[in-house]
């Protein structure tokens, strides 16, 4: 009996030791992957031509997928890889990894993936294929193969009744040499299908909107974030610097007022002209003081 117990304890100890070794090996392996990814991303940024940038980024994509195949990679933050925005959903169901390559003409191409949290199961990725240039209608409902590319920095889950939850993604979208965009995107899952866009916005001029896109002068900045004190998604309201100029976003910037979306009954209800006590936030992107002569134009 004593010998049997000793053998059992020995087996248990060996099993635990093997588990601990494997648990330690995964982060070490991912550290090596991360170091290599940092070198490739630096080479991509410093490349002298678009072809070199895109070729380097192709190597980056391939190596990132290999890294994510490592067991328990979902728990690895990749926090030293500054070119990639890695954001987990608050419910830990998935995370987004998104980044961009800026081209010589000042435009951007976006790349990314959604990694599902499968615990110790197999890797489950949804690659995000930027099709911005091919979208005649930026309001169209799409999937991960036809993605309105952006670099996401915040995820807000929305649940209501017995309906499937959806997620609000806040993203930055460098656009051209003249303008920058930010986007409020809607993400939902149904079995193995990924959907971007949904008519969940409630407010004037928002009927039929599947996503909200803001566009403003590249020389300015725009706040778009969740405000826990206000209990809503808040953003700078954009207006034209010149009252005579309308419909030209290269002349738009913050007019010093704030709007927001409050989650009510599973919808994003527009709240206008908010009073906020804003705290400093890295997502404000070096917020620029509004011009005094901006005329408000409330239009999405």
From TrEMBL:
Keyword Signal attributed: yes
Record key words, sorted: Signal
Region forming the signal peptide: 1-23
Protein name: Uncharacterized protein
Lineage: Bacteria, Pseudomonadati, Bacteroidota, Sphingobacteriia, Sphingobacteriales
């Amino acid at each position: 009996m004593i010998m049997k117990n000793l053998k059992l304890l020995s087996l248990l100890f060996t099993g635990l030791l093997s588990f601990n070794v494997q648990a330690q090996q995964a982060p070490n392996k991912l550290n090596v992957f991360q170091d290599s990814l940092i070198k490739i991303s630096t080479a991509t940024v410093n490349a002298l031509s678009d072809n070199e940038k895109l070729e380097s980024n192709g190597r980056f994509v391939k190596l990132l997928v290999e890294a994510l195949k490592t067991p328990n990679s979902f728990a690895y933050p990749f926090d030293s890889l500054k070119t990639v925005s890695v954001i987990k959903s608050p419910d830990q169901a998935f995370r987004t990894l998104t980044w961009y390559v800026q081209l010589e003409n000042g435009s951007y191409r976006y790349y990314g993936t959604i990694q599902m949290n499968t615990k110790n199961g197999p890797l489950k990725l949804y690659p995000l294929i930027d099709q911005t240039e091919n979208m005649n209608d930026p309001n169209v409902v799409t999937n991960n193969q036809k993605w309105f590319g952006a670099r996401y920095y915040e995820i807000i889950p929305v649940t209501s009744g017995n309906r499937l939850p959806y997620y609000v993604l806040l993203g930055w979208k460098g656009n051209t040499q003249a303008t920058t965009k930010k986007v409020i995107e809607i993400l939902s899952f149904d079995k193995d299908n990924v959907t971007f866009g949904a008519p969940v916005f409630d407010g004037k001029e928002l009927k039929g909107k599947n996503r909200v896109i803001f566009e403003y002068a590249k020389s300015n900045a725009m706040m778009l974030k969740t405000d826990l004190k206000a209990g809503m998604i808040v953003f700078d309201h954009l207006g034209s610097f010149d009252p005579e100029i309308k419909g030209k976003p290269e002349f738009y910037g913050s007019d010093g007022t704030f709007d927001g979306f409050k989650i009510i009954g599973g919808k994003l209800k527009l709240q206008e002209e908010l009073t906020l006590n804003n705290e400093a936030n890295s997502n404000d992107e070096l917020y620029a003081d509004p011009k005094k002569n901006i005329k408000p134009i409330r239009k999405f």
